[in-house]
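Regression check, flavin mononucleotide case 430:
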Amino acid sequence: MPDTPQQDSPQQNIAPPDSRLALANRRIVLGVTGGIAAYKSAELIRRLKDLGADVRVVMTPAAQEFITPLTLQALSGNPVHTTLLDTEAEAAMGHIELARWGDLILVAPASADFLARMAHGHGNDLLTTLCLAARCPLAVAPAMNQAMWASRSNQDNIALLQARGIPLFGPAAGEQACGDVGPGRMLEPTELAHLTAGLFPRQLLTGTRITITAGPTREAIDPVRYISNHSSGKMGFALAEAARDAGAQVTLISGPVHLPTPDRVQRIDVVSAQDMYDASLGALKQTDIFIATAAVADFRVENSRNQKIKKQDNSGTIQDGRMTLTLVENPDIVAAVASHSPKPFTVGFAAETQDVENYARQKIARKGLDMIVANDVSRSDIGFNSDQNAVTVIWPDGQQAIDLASKAQIARDLVTLIATHYQQQHKNAR
Ligand SMILES: Cc1cc2nc3c(=O)[nH]c(=O)nc-3n(C[C@H](O)[C@H](O)[C@H](O)COP(=O)(O)O)c2cc1C
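Current build output:
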């Protein structure tokens, strides 16, 4: 029937730098219905993922006659959803849960039959039921023979959907599989991916990749003992949420803390300063902004022991009721990041107990940072374990105080400030 299958076009780099990761953190439910253009949905998944989206595919029974769920599962990296009345499928991710999961339901290709069912509120398969249950926006990319497209019934259905504000992507006009020429071809995946990205407003940090370190590190003395500090990780986790909400793709490298992983944030758990150093340097290829909130131990125990040290140890560690541990310096994570080439916009934290601003300014110069967030951890109402904070943000030629507020609010203010300076630096570099 419609839509001539075309040879795969050569691999295109569809994401110009300013739309890179335009869909970061966005969850797209891609509905695929039964038409020849279903083969293009494979390419569409890749294009959506290139722009940063997480994609879950829902296929109608007819769609599965044209392309296999296995192909779309492999490309999306998620299980493909095909049935409504199936206890196992419902147990894995129920239709209401799936409807809630998406930030958008995009149906591409959308058959004439599907558009009719959608326009008239049917819920006789998984995809139509999802469309009914969804609170998120819907968009459709019709694909069909030109006569089907032009038919009175189809045009009435399209008018109904448009009256509901459902965006219509295409169709394009051109030669069709049946030999007809006219409107009905599904838009190309590249164009569909960009139209999809265009449905989401650009945010402050859309397309920016941020790596944040958080929490304390633990430096082993032996398998049961360690040296650590009071950092709770709350500030770093709050920053991860605020950066994500501003559209960034966030990697959170966390020492041992008792905090749940924020939704849509990639978390890497580490224990020691050396682990955190390795994870941080390893993340730099995918990092535009690096924020070091972790309270990293400056020193670790030299020759930490493989076996528990006994009170009556005879190796020289314990003598005359005194335990002697030699501490050696850990690598300086934020300094290493700031001296890396290419260098991400690097933000350090300075937790001090006295002369906070002065130490922070010295630190910014010594380590080559772009910005430093200084806080006074000697105050009991702010800092380490508190839910509140008050900070002074310092950069080479200026500073700004952020007054006492919840860590979530401080995080939002910090993200705005960091984003502004990062963008300024980029504009100047161009
Ligand atoms: C070879 C073939 C190609 C088809 N291509 C299309 C198409 O491009 N667009 C369309 O609306 N229907 C097409 N159909 C008809 C649909 O598959 C049919 O209406 C089906 O019920 C759609 O089901 P669904 O909307 O649940 O996926 C085609 C049918 C066949 C046999």
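Comparison notes: Residues 1-17 have pLDDT under 50 and may be disordered. The first helix runs from residue 40 to 50. No diff flagged against the previous build.
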